[in-house]
Design a protein that fits this description.
Mean pLDDT: 84
Number of domains: 2
Helix content: 55-70%
Distance between the termini: 88 Å
Number of helices: 21
Strand content: 5-15%
GO molecular function, one term: antiporter activity
CATH architecture of the largest domain: Up-down Bundle
Domain Transporter-associated: 413-491
Low-confidence stretches: none
Strand order of the largest sheet: 1-4-3-2
Number of strands: 4
Shape: globular
Structural class: mainly alpha
Largest sheet: 4 strands, antiparallel
Radius of gyration: 24 Å
CATH topology of the largest domain: Na+/H+ antiporter like fold
Membrane topology: Multi-pass membrane protein
Transmembrane segments: 6-28, 35-55, 61-81, 93-116, 122-142, 163-182, 202-220, 232-249, 255-272, 284-301, 313-333, 345-368, 374-397
CATH class of the largest domain: Mainly Alpha
Subcellular location: Cell membrane
Length: 492
């Protein structure tokens, strides 16, 4: 009789792992424990050194699953990103996603030389592996936390995490080549060719992602009447198209991650009515992708091998969170006039997730000497980041007063926006004369224009400027103009 154990046993094991991880994540999230960390830990406990005893060392399969999962997660995040968020978040996000990753990798490399005794090519490789924020973690934590962050912070974090993977991949591949050259001395680095590859990744990824996005959005809009039958079918159509764009772009040596994110942004905005009904099903696909990715990456880890370098790896993680990331964020965001609290929060939410572990597989597959130490260090960095940063995200946002209240919460709404509502088109002369406030140099300018000039950045709802004994708060924006303003006067 034909035995089907080869099918039943792996399927039962996989289903059990997913079920236990999801159930544990639901329970743990109630006490503020990061949902995704549960998946990673369940995979580790099921591995060779854990109670599960599953021996799994297929790095090629893990690499394949990790890339596909990241493409799905970036696609889902792009579908939910509205064009309006780029008004305030695009320029700072682009700088963080490029220069910020380079700076973070460089600063972290210094800690790698100091704490892990790595030579400088390996240290730079380690910095590149852990240098970018993780889209999967940022998207899921911001969504699951239920926080309504102010637009500038939310847009900057979302766009940065969606666009910084290409830079991290490029740096990782570059430093792998540099490490191999320095260690065997058989070749020399062609830096001009390296820069050309960098440009190719961004140009090809951006063009293919945008072009495919407009094409699929047009197709969905033309088929909208036929797509009303089910959100699951529509989500499957979107996911297959997104993965196809990722694969095609990667094959043409572009950045598949960038293409998947831009594809999602274009489709989500140009085909908004058709996409909206598929978002709940896409959310399920994204969670499934994250579950599979974190479970498999957890299975790869051998805790006994981590113990020897645990203390130095923890030092790398803390240096990255407390020095490298904050310093990189400060240098990149300095020209954009973010507040000190916004600086601090964006620096702290430099969350590391599956991306560093996936990138750490690159040097293992390339046969880099010392790659195992980099993989173990990346795992420690991810666990530490999820545990410390992920679990304190909501608390810090409230502490920094970066959360906007809902209109139904009248007490907090009045606390933030004040008791008086003013039209943004009235002149400063009228406002100052009525409320006995000091006149600015141009008293005939409108209240909205004065606020924008004082802020020296694109205004968002919740922005505040002091004027004499009063506080002026942006209450509503239409297009790029401030339409309504709140006025807060001191309580006597």
């Amino acid at each position: 009789m034909l035995s089907l154990d080869f099918l039943a046993l792996p399927l039962m094991a996989a289903a059990t792992l997913v079920f236990v991880a999801v159930l544990g994540g639901i329970i743990s999230s109630r006490i503020g424990f990061p949902f995704l960390l549960v998946f990673l830990l369940v995979g580790t406990l099921a591995g060779a050194d854990g109670p599960g005893g599953i021996v799994f060392d297929d790095f090629s399969l893990s690499f394949w699953v990790g890339n596909i999962a990241l493409a799905v997660i970036l696609l889902d995040g792009g579908l939910r990103t509205e064009f309006s968020t780029f008004r305030t978040g695009l320029r700072p996000s682009l700088l963080l996603a490029t220069l910020g990753v380079i700076l973070s990798a460089g600063f972290t490399a210094v800690a790698g030389i100091w704490l892990l005794n790595l030579d400088w090519p390996l240290a730079l490789l380690m910095g590149a592996i852990v240098g970018s924020t993780d889209a999967a973690v940022v998207f899921s934590l911001l969504k699951s936390s239920g926080l309504r962050l102010n637009e500038r912070v939310a847009a900057t974090l979302e766009i940065e995490s969606g666009m910084n993977d290409p830079m991290a991949v490029f740096l990782t591949l570059t430093f792998i080549s540099l490490t191999l050259v320095m260690h065997d001395g058989s070749e020399t680095m062609d830096w001009l060719d390296t820069l050309g590859n960098f440009a190719t990744q961004f140009v090809v990824g951006g063009l293919l992602g945008a072009g495919a996005g407009y094409a699929i959005a047009a197709l969905m809009n033309s088929l909208r009447s036929l797509l009303d039958s089910g959100s699951g079918i529509l989500a499957l159509l979107l996911m297959s198209a997104g993965i196809g764009v990722f694969g095609l772009t990667t094959w043409l040596e572009g950045s598949g991650f960038l293409a998947a994110y831009i594809f999602g942004v274009i489709v989500g905005n140009q085909g908004r009515k058709a996409v909206r009904q598929a978002l709940s099903a896409m959310d399920g696909f994204a969670w499934l992708a994250q579950a599979c990715m974190f479970l498999i990456l957890g299975l790869l880890v051998t805790p006994n091998e981590i113990v020897a370098d645990l203390v130095p790896a923890l030092g790398i993680a803390l240096f990255l969170m407390l020095v490298a990331r904050p310093l990189s964020v400060w240098l990149c965001l300095l020209p954009f006039h973010f507040t000190a609290k916004e600086f601090a929060f964006i620096a702290w939410v430099g969350l590391r997730g599956a991306v560093p572990i996936v990138l750490a597989i690159f040097p293992l597959m390339a046969g880099v000497t010392g790659a195992e130490a980099l993989f173990n260090a990346a795992f420690v960095v991810v666990v530490t980041s999820l545990l410390l940063q992920g679990s304190t995200l909501a608390w810090l946002a409230r502490r920094m007063d970066l959360i906007l209240p809902e209109k139904a919460d009248s007490q907090n709404w009045r606390r933030v926006f004040g008791d008086f509502v003013l039209d943004g088109r009235i002149t400063m002369e009228q406002v100052c004369g009525f409320y006995d406030l000091p006149l600015p140099e141009e008293p005939d300018q409108t209240l909205g224009h004065w606020l924008t000039s004082e802020l020296r950045r694109p205004p968002i709802v919740g922005d505040k400027v002091s004027l004499g004994h009063a506080e002026i708060v942006v209450r509503e924006i239409k297009g790029t103009d401030i339409s309504l303003v709140g006025l807060k006067l001191p309580q006597h």
